[in-house]
Design brief:
Length: 233
């Protein structure tokens, strides 16, 4: 029997998003990047004229807003729909101003508490691959298959740097590396739900491995957990 929920955690640019997408498509599961919920709160806080960081306002929004993640309804490149209070904000949550502020908002304890409950609501529906930084430890500790995907900070910075260059951004590697180290510090040292592997997670280092190699490795791991008369799709 396939796992009801798969939790994939790891630091920025470790490859967890690519792995989660491949697994979700392979299994015909919902791909759910929990980070989109923090982006959603950041978006509506900025739209309301808030000057971040305004913790109390962001917490109030997280507690009062209903965010849902569903299979994609449009073929515009999206991997899922993000609905905030019934409105489609799938593309808006990727705006540059959201990028610039989401790390601050996601560190607020009240925001994390409120959104964790919403993430659990979706995760417990089953047939989902959830990706984030605290899925296996906090959001869905009962998930029946957990991966913690890691890589050296230099390798992760190199990947992010190449992504920026391919987009045409003018940026140097040292700037990307410094930003990556800062994000790691924030994620690993926050008081609530710090980034760390679950005790029962499979730990994989993606240094020197392609996305396809990691995906194949995880599929083999899943197959080993299935009864002999069952097969992965």
């Amino acid at each position: 029997m396939l796992p009801s929920a798969i939790a994939i955690d790891g630091p920025a640019a470790s490859g967890k998003t690519t792995l989660a997408i491949k697994l979700a498509q392979h299994l015909d599961y919902l791909y759910f990047d929990t980070g989109v919920m923090y982006r959603g709160i950041t978006l509506i806080a900025l739209a309301g004229g808030a000057t971040l960081p305004d913790e109390s306002h962001c917490v109030a929004l997280a507690e009062s807003s209903h965010i849902d993640v569903r299979p994609p309804s449009l073929e515009d490149g999206r991997l899922f729909d993000v609905l905030i209070n019934g409105e489609d904000h799938t593309l808006n949550i990727r705006l540059p101003e959201v990028d610039a502020n989401v790390s601050v908002v996601s560190a607020y304890a009240g925001v994390r508490k409120a959104l964790t409950e919403q993430q659990r609501r979706i995760g417990r529906q089953g047939r989902v691959v959830m990706v984030g930084r605290d899925i296996g430890t906090v959001v869905l500790p009962e998930a029946d298959f957990k991966i913690f995907l890691d890589a050296s900070v230099e390798e992760r910075a190199r990947r992010r740097y190449l992504e920026c260059i391919q987009r045409g951004d003018e940026i140097d590697f040292d700037t990307v590396l410094a930003s990556m180290k800062n994000r790691d510090t924030i994620d690993s040292n926050r008081t609530v739900a710090p980034l760390k592997p679950a005790a029962d997670a499979f730990r994989i280092n993606s240094d020197g491995k392609t996305a396809e190699q990691i995906f194949s490795q995880v599929v083999v791991m899943l197959e080993k957990q299935q009864p002999e008369n069952s097969e992965l799709s």
